[in-house]
Design brief:
This protein is mainly beta. 5% of the residues lie in helices and 47% in strands. The longest helix is centred in the C-terminal third of the chain and has 12 residues, at 223-234.
Amino acid sequence: MRHVTLVLLGLVLTPGLFAAAQEKKADPKKKEAPEPKTWMVKKGELLWQETFEGKEFPKTWNKGLGEWAVESGVLRGAEAPADKHHAYCSRKVEQANAVLQFTFKLEGAEWLGGFFDGKEHVAALSLSADTIRIRRMSGMGPTSKSTEIDSTKVKLNDGQWHTVVWEFFGDEMVATVDDQHMAFAKAEGLSMDRLHLELNTAGGKSAFFKDVKVWKAEADSKWPQNRARLFQMLKKKPAAVGYK
């Protein structure tokens, strides 16, 4: 595992697209930061977006375990010690090939992230103080099994807001934070039974989430070529992350 700053296809990807402090008032003359890019797929139809307006927990979401509260456009989650389980909430996706994006901040939590689930767990994204991890999952509850398939070192406990883009297409996954730090892998036979997105967090204090978006993923013919370049740039061995 290594700290990685991505420079791909001649593009220098600028850090800090999302500032630590929330702006008090939007400057009408100030251009909004561009949407983070995708690497493996093209964004198709925007299936839904959650901005956590108001003070009520959204009715379109299922509140699972833990403590969840909406505060001025931000969803705050924290593990409840009595649950003896990580905190989680979820919303339907019902699209097997999708792009999932959200902005987050670790506020004392040990980690935060998401699961992609169907009748059982399919895959997991974990963002801790110093590591991005993607895992293949199976089972549910007491039968859950988890296998890490790639990880990358990155500093995320800096009090800053960060944005992650998590791409799924077939049995491949790509997770990118702030257009810079990437983990990607192929999990042969990855279940296509993908019905909902779970946001989760555990340990410590709180985790913050905002502006959650889900798009339909469409195939990008450039991905095989780009993937080969990423292997060279990141000095990854294909077999180590599931490619033959």
